[in-house]
Amino acid sequence: MTAKELLILGGTGEASTLARAVLARFGDALNLTTSLAGRTERPGPLPNRVRIGGFGGPAGLAAYLVQRGVDRLIDATHPFAARISTAARLACDEVGVPRLLLLRPPWRRHPLDRWIEVDDMAAAAALVGRIGRRAFLTVGAGEVACFAAADGVRFLVRLVDPPRGRLPLRCYEAVIGRGPFTLAEERHRLERHAVDVLVCKASGGAATEAKIIAAREFGIPVIMVRRPPPEPGDAVETVEAAVDWLASEHLFQKTKRVS
After folding, report:
1. Among 51, 166, 175, 217, fewest CB within 10 Å belongs to which?
2. What is the pLDDT of residue 46?
3. Residue 102: beta bridge partners?
4. pLDDT, tens digit, for every residue of 4-55?
5. DSSP letters along 1-56, please?
6. Are 174 and 184 contacting, i.e. CB atoms less than 8 angstroms apart?
7. How is residue 206 annotated by DSSP?
């Protein structure tokens, strides 16, 4: 039997875990390629083939799926990676490749949480100076520029890669780190830098939830940018369920519909 071709759209911890679980379950019966956008300079190790870079929109991805003979696609990208998820839906619909969304479970609001939910990064930037003076900014390198006009705020900016030049912020300190982060680490960071407001995306998942818990414990307000709605399609919330989807003869069993 010819090995099946699986494309994982990755760049997340869940995608890495999924890649390892797929190989452990199927071995040589499945050829795996994980695609990364290339925004991180030093991505973590991944098994099997890794592809780095964009596809050129839905048409480019559709052409890739046909050229490589991809049998199934799992979208395990970040909850805020809306552009590639839309491209994946359109491309898979065009060429008839079954697609599954691996959705990261959202954080659940605790009664003691002081969340201020906003719709986008511009709203978060407009609000931060009214909430605090020492902000812990964990929104990703691509969003830092949104806060360039914020006045009277000292930012502690967490990045995965060291910045190549000065960040477009008036007053800041950068810290470099890749999750998961422990609760003890996040408590220490908030205390050491006297953080009085946390700014983050509603990314969900366990890898970065510790900062939310630490902010709750210290009574620190959190400006939370709401995640965009997921693309419609069949979806699961665990790696195990995604592997089961691959193993099933009926591709749409054990999934839930996102509408």
Report:
1. 166
2. 80
3. 236
4. 999 999 999 999 999 999 999 999 889 999 999 877 666 667 877 899 999 9
5. -PPEEEEEE--SHHHHHHHHHHHHHHGGGEEEEEEE-S-SSSPPP-SSEEEES---
6. no
7. S
